[in-house]
Amino acid sequence: MTAVGKFSTRPLYLQVKDMLIQRIAAGDWKPGAAIPNEIELSRELGISVGTVRKALDEMEHERLISRRQGRGTFVIDQTSTEHAVRFSNIRDPGAVRIGGDLVNCTIVAAAANQTEAQHLELRNGEPIFRIHRLRAHHGVPLMVEESIVPQALFPGLERETDDSPSIVVLARHYGVLLGRAEEKVGVAAAKGDVAKLLGVEENTPVLLLDRVVRTIDGRPIEWRLASCNLRQNYYLAEMN
Amino acid sequence: MTAVGKFSTRPLYLQVKDMLIQRIAAGDWKPGAAIPNEIELSRELGISVGTVRKALDEMEHERLISRRQGRGTFVIDQTSTEHAVRFSNIRDPGAVRIGGDLVNCTIVAAAANQTEAQHLELRNGEPIFRIHRLRAHHGVPLMVEESIVPQALFPGLERETDDSPSIVVLARHYGVLLGRAEEKVGVAAAKGDVAKLLGVEENTPVLLLDRVVRTIDGRPIEWRLASCNLRQNYYLAEMN
DNA sequence: AAGTGGTCTAGACCACGGA
DNA sequence: CCGTGGTCTAGACCACTTA
Asked: Which pLDDT does position B162 carry in this prediction?
């Protein structure tokens, strides 16, 4: 018997899930690697296979693992082309999600102002990074964005030599698992720098994307404000 | 043993789900009513409780039923205030979904043009209804919309004395269960009638919503094109 | 107290993928 | 062929709601 126990009120399969998520986040199993099979996990934990299955089912639904009959269960690489753009609802004319390629990136350390603290559920003045990026698609400017992240989750980010192209890549680099996101969609007229960077005339209408990405535990990890010139691309929201 | 059998390749729990959905759509159990409990269903069908559970789990996830420990399993009323606006991503300042109240509604029978046929996966010229609506929120114009639906699914709709406020209400009235929807979000300048109906000046930027709602089987049932004046409301997309 | 869904067990067999 | 996840069974007990 390991960290899971039958004397908590929390259902066993959720404890199993928590434990597996924790081990993935800790790097016990790298992205792309196989997880022990169901029988083995159930023996290790001294519980039934069905209980392990229920934990794995939920994790698959949350895109943490992928299971295939006959092959096994694998940790999903969130930075793979398939998953890297899952928090972008912008599609190219062929309906595939695009996130834009990084053109330019500057990082500044600062203290959270009130809006920033509110969006990230921090206290006023807590340390954050402000990341400004310009993104292009097929060489054409797509969006300018300001991304706010708490310093606590990304220690030493400002000294990184590599660029930090997106929250998905950052999260993987710092061992954080991402969950859900909400995005407000609005419209505004491009002004000054924004217009210049996007290569459009002043007052061209652009899409305004105000997005909060959360970790698997539901804590906000990034607040991003983007101005986007869609051109022939479009924004697509799916509803269940 | 009823309509489910063990000699198909389709998993038993999916056959059970299909059958239950069919019975709900047929009106065997009205919205709000209780479904027989798991034990009873499993006895009726001659299968194990676990198999019934798996079917019910999926149906709950698809918002067809709601289950509560100690109470029972109930057919969800899609037209209840909670579920009626689930295909609208517009939120009021308090973050609650709003669909707008119906102000005005006209229905015209017609033959599908190419775009309409394409969106609804019909053949050119198949009979459709074009429904024009004006919606307001707290008495203030919110959106004008043109909704296209196939006549096949809504026989006699043009003779209805009741207004048809939304696809959700229509679907319930005609015994169709709704599944998912996709919505393209764009921006445009309000012109002519649209500007007049929304009570804004010409060329005011409005949100353009291009939405396809599908049945539980995945067939398109409504294509709606709406021009929306958000004012203090906003558009919120959720991503998993 | 009775009845419901929720959790958990311990098996069996099937369908699929790769060596 | 073997090992994997997917389906299905037949129970047990728990937690919650209602009367």
From this structure: 73
Same-domain status, A27 and A107? no
Tally of domains within chain B: 2
- CB-CB: which of A86, A186, A187 is closest to B239? A86
- Counting beta carbons within 10 angstroms of the beta carbon of residue B192, is it exposed (0 to 12), middle (13 to 18) or buried (19 or more)? exposed
List the structure tokens of B224.
Answer: 């709606």
Asked whether residue A42 falls in the same domain as residue A115, the answer is: no
Q: Which residues in chain B are closer than 8 Å to A240, comparing Cβ atoms?
A: 62-63, 180
Confidence category of residue A8, pLDDT binned at 50, 70, 90: low
Kindly state whether residues A104 and A182 are assigned to the same domain. Answer: yes
With CA atoms as reference, the chain B residue closest to A88 would be B239
Other C-beta atoms within 10 Å of A182: how many? 15
CB contact under 8 A, B185 and A185: yes
How do residues A58-74 score in pLDDT, each as one tens digit?
A: 999 999 999 999 999 99
In this structure, the answer to whether residues A24 and A87 fall within a common structural domain is no
Strand D within 7 A of A145 CB: no
Q: Are residues B88 and B58 in the same domain?
A: no
Same-domain check for residues A60 and A99: no
Query: What is the pTM for the complete model shown?
Result: 0.94
CATH of the domain at A41: 1.10.10.10
User: Is A236 an interface residue toward B (CB < 8 Å)?
Assistant: yes
Q: Residue B212 is part of a domain; what is its CATH number?
A: 3.40.1410.10
Q: How far is the CA of A66 from the C1' of C15 (A)?
A: 18
Decide: B24 and B18 in contact? Cβ < 8 Å: no
Among A205, A234, A240, beta carbon nearest to B205: A205
Asked whether residue A7 is assigned to any structural domain, the reply reads no
Q: Does the C-beta of B4 come within 7 A of strand D?
A: no
Q: Are B104 and B173 in the same domain?
A: yes
**Which of A53, A75, A97 finishes a domain?**
A75
Instruction: Write the residue in A87, A181, A234 that is nearest to B184 by C-beta.
Output: A234
What domain range is B196 assigned to? 81-235
Q: Is B231 on the interface with A (CB under 8 A)?
A: no
